[in-house]
Amino acid sequence: MSTQANISVLEQARGRWNCGDLDGYLRLYSADAVLHGYANVPPGLRGIRQFYEGFWSAFPGSQIIFEDVFAAGDRVACRFVIKAKQLGEFQGLPATGKSVHLPGLTILRFAEGRCVERWSQVDAASLLDASETRS
């Protein structure tokens, strides 16, 4: 697929996320996709689904905003921010009820129209800040 087609797949996944359609979002990934930079997420769609189900439970209605998207060859790089309210526990952090902005960077490698490998870095310190300022 072309670089533009890969960008389009990522844009469609963001649209599904922002509509609250987890199954639609997960169509981004191949069955054996590997995520790097995600704590304790085993390879494959089952582990990926489990991670995102936990995220969506803690941050219902979260929205992803793409700030920059670049592509070269089989890879798409994206600078993004997730805007959400933490209403549930996430990876040991208790719910705060506070709004958070989680900026991050990700690089996705595509094959046959699906993400087969992904590297991400998110500013998780934002979650710690929200938990410390909890009222």
Topology:
Elements (H helix, E strand, L loop, with lengths): L2 H16 L3 H5 L2 E8 L8 H14 L4 E10 L2 E11 L13 E13 L2 E9 L2 H8 L3
Q: Based on the structure given, which CATH architecture is correct?
A: Roll
Overall geometry comes to: globular
* Structural class designation: alpha+beta
- Kindly provide the name of the CATH class: Alpha Beta
Q: Helicity, in percent? A: 25-40%
Radius of gyration, in angstroms, nearest whole number: 15 Å
Report, as a whole number of angstroms, the end-to-end distance.
49 Å
Please name the CATH topology: Nuclear Transport Factor 2, Chain: A
User: What composes the largest sheet?
Assistant: 5 strands, mixed
Q: What string, H for helix and E for strand, traces the elements in order?
A: HHEHEEEEH
The overall strand count is 5
Q: What number of domains?
A: 1
How many individual helices?
4
Average pLDDT: 92
Low-pLDDT stretches are: none
> For the largest beta sheet, what order do the strands appear in spatially?
1-5-4-3-2
What fraction of residues sit in β-strands?
Answer: 35-45%
Could you characterize the architecture of this molecule?
By secondary structure, the protein is an alpha+beta fold. The protein has one domain (3-132): Nuclear Transport Factor 2, Chain: A (Roll). The protein is 32% helix and 38% strand. It contains four helices and five strands; from the N terminus they run ααβαββββα. The chain has helices spanning 3-18, 22-26, 45-58, 125-132; strands at residues 29-36, 63-72, 75-85, 99-111, 114-122. The chain has a five-stranded mixed β-sheet with strand order 1-5-4-3-2. β2 and β3 (75-85) form a beta hairpin. The radius of gyration is 15 Å and the shape is globular.
